[in-house]
């Protein structure tokens, strides 16, 4: 019995000595540990270890937008073209004004990289070349500069790109149609156009809104499906621009519906914005009633 007690005492002593030696090694490292950390920081560390968050986010890389389902001309028995404006000053449209990567920057980058074409017209017939697009999106200013060394005046030309936050509105062209094959009414966006306000350079008075270019949405949607849209309620659950447009998660008002004379609401009610707004809501209600009246209950 005494032998067992002695053996247990010896084992306890050995374990205690082992723990003490480990603690001594930990505290005695001192200045010797610093060079190892420096070497690791300088040569051995991976840049991916520094994340702006808890984990690396790959949500945008995994997002995909499915291609449109094929449809035949004979399946479309009714169609109506609608033009609407997305005003970025409305609260629901705050994601369009995201300062990190607004929609305008995304469209511009896609055009600069040659991923999509941009057009001057809403029929998508006249495309803009790279040089024309650069000239359109850059403002050229001339100023007289005084050279203090030669005592002469010279003209200096400077180019300043359009500020993405100057885009206050987007025009959207879409088609509402009834698909008899699936017995459903659908909507498909055809084009998106950023709009800026043009002001008089001398007086600063607003002159007119200017459409910069048109983007053919069916070609751009696969790229927009990979671009994330910030979520105001949950940072880990962003959506994509493609899904935002497909789910129609934006506020807008109608400016034109297809008609034989090609008239806009501004042409019908030139002096009253209130009447144009009422007419816009009436067109929305007509679309809803048309779909509702297709069915009997």
Describe it for me?
With 297 residues, the chain is α+β, with helices and mostly antiparallel strands. It has one domain. Helix content is 33%, strand content 27%. It has nine helices and eleven strands. Strands 1, 2, 5, 6, 7, 8 and 11 form a seven-stranded antiparallel sheet that branches. It has a two-stranded antiparallel ribbon with strand order 3-4. The protein starts with a helix and ends with a helix.
Write the layout of secondary structure elements.
Layout: H1 2-28, H2 33-44, H3 59-62, E1 76-87, H4 103-112, E2 118-119, H5 130-136, E3 138-147, E4 152-161, E5 167-179, E6 184-199, E7 206-211, E8 214-216, H6 217-224, E9 228-229, E10 239-240, H7 241-246, E11 253-257, H8 265-268, H9 273-293
Antiparallel strand pairs: 1-5, 1-11, 2-8, 3-4, 5-6, 6-7, 6-8, 9-10
Quick summary:
The chain is α+β, with helices and mostly antiparallel strands and 297 residues long. It has nine helices and eleven strands.
Keywords summarizing the entry:
297 residues, alpha+beta, seven-stranded antiparallel β-sheet, 9 helices, 11 strands
The percentage helix is 25-40%
The best one-word shape is: flat
Percent strand equals: 25-35%
Distance between the termini: 94 Å
User: In terms of quaternary structure, what is this?
Assistant: single chain
Please state the average pLDDT score: 82
> Total number of β-strand segments?
11
User: Order of helices and strands, N to C?
Assistant: HHHEHEHEEEEEEHEEHEHH
- Helical stretch tally: 9
Using the CA coordinates, give the radius of gyration. 32 Å
Give the biggest sheet.
Answer: 7 strands, antiparallel
């Amino acid at each position: 019995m005494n032998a067992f007690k002695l053996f247990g005492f010896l084992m306890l002593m050995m374990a205690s000595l082992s723990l003490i030696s480990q603690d001594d090694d930990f505290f005695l490292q001192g200045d010797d540990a610093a060079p190892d950390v420096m070497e690791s920081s300088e040569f051995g560390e991976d840049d991916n270890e520094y994340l702006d968050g808890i984990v690396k986010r790959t949500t945008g890389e995994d997002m995909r937008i499915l291609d449109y389902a094929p449809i035949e001309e004979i399946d479309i028995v009714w169609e109506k073209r609608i033009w609407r404006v997305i005003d970025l000053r409305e609260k629901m449209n705050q994601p369009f004004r995201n300062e990190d990567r607004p929609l305008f920057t995304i469209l511009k980058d896609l055009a600069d990289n040659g991923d999509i074409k941009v057009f001057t017209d809403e029929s998508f017939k006249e495309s803009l070349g790279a040089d024309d697009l650069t000239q359109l999106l850059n403002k050229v200013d001339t100023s007289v500069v005084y050279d203090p060394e030669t005592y002469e005046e010279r003209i200096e030309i400077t180019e300043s790109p359009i500020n993405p936050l100057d885009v206050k509105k987007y025009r959207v062209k879409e088609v509402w149609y009834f698909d008899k094959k699936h017995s459903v009414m659908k909507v498909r966006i055809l084009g998106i156009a950023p709009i800026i306000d043009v002001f008089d350079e001398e007086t600063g008075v607003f002159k007119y809104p200017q459409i910069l270019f048109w983007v053919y949405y069916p070609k751009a949607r696969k790229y927009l499906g990979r671009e994330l849209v910030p979520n105001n309620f949950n940072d880990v659950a962003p959506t994509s621009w493609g899904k935002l447009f497909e789910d129609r998660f934006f506020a807008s008002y109608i400016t034109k519906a297809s008609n034989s004379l090609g008239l806009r609401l501004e042409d019908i009610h030139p002096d009253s914005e209130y009447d144009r707004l009422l007419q816009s809501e009436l067109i929305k209600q007509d679309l809803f009633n048309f779909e509702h009246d297709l069915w009997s209950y």
